[in-house]
Amino acid sequence: MTKETIPDLKYYGKKWLELKIQRMQNLLKIADPDEALYREIMLSLGYPNNKLNFLELALLTPYSEIKKLGTRKIIEKALLYRAGLTEDKTDIPSSFDFSLRISKTIWKYKGTRPANFPDKRIKGISHLLSETVSIGLVNYFQKKINQQIGNTKPTSILTRREASPKKIMDFKGIGIQRKEEMFFNIIMPFIMSFSNESQLNNFLHFMFENYPPLKDNRLTRDFKTNYPSIKINTVKEYMGALLFQKENKNIKQKH
């Protein structure tokens, strides 16, 4: 492969973000903002083998119903029951439709790491859901981001670290690596597609362009094998490498 065809990761990172924002805009055409964001979060919990099952769970137990359940323990128990993963109905309101359930046999455990087992993911996400019931998911994250803007002046290398999703995603129940992935893959592009606040959007773009890359996965490792001379320094370049690798799966040359 010639020098001219070596991938421009900033270009592919920009393209990745545009595709993500377009996806979120399409979701907002068919669902209430809180429901759309809730479905995307639930879908992501199913990685790698249970994504459609988690989406079905989100459709059967919409965010509007989650808000009525209120507390974390009841939200967790209701989701587990509807997922077919428990028979315990204790404290779930009588208005809850107990006949509406997913068969526990659809959940895939083979090839799934224990940390990604559906019951563990449901228990983990119940922390976030319970924190948001009073103001809604979208408002919750907009508020968190605006608080972070107030505490950060994105002008230096130091504040690249301070402008961190760790402070925005400070709920319990999910590890920091998965929180970072959830932020950049879902929360950031969703809020960009939803909000008209220029300061908020500028801040999110700053984070995208300056925050250090996420932990390597199979695609980024393949990219680094194919292009060992190209350094991935930011989330934008990291996502660019992901998109490039997806679009060029058969490339195996080293540069």
User: What is the straight-line distance between the termini?
Assistant: 8 Å
The largest β sheet comes out as: none
List how many beta strands DSSP finds: 0
Please give the share of residues in helix: 55-70%
Count of discrete alpha- or pi-helical segments spanning 4 or more residues: 13
Query: Given the C-alpha coordinates, what overall shape results?
Result: globular
Radius of gyration: 20 Å
The assigned structural class equals mainly alpha
**Strand-residue fraction?**
under 5%
Q: Please, what is the oligomeric state? A: single chain
- What series of H and E elements makes up the topology? HHHHHHHHHHHHH
- Uncertain runs: none
Average predicted local confidence, pLDDT: 92
Q: Could you say how many structural domains there are in total?
A: 2
How would you portray this structure in words?
This protein has helices spanning 9-30, 33-45, 51-60, 63-69, 72-82, 118-132, 137-151, 157-162, 165-168, 176-194, 198-210, 218-226, 235-247. By secondary structure, the chain is mainly α. The protein folds into 2 domains: 1-30 and 137-247, no CATH class; 31-134, no CATH class. Helix 1 (9-30) packs across helix 10, helix 7 (137-151) packs across helix 11 and helix 12 packs across helix 13 (235-247). The chain is globular.
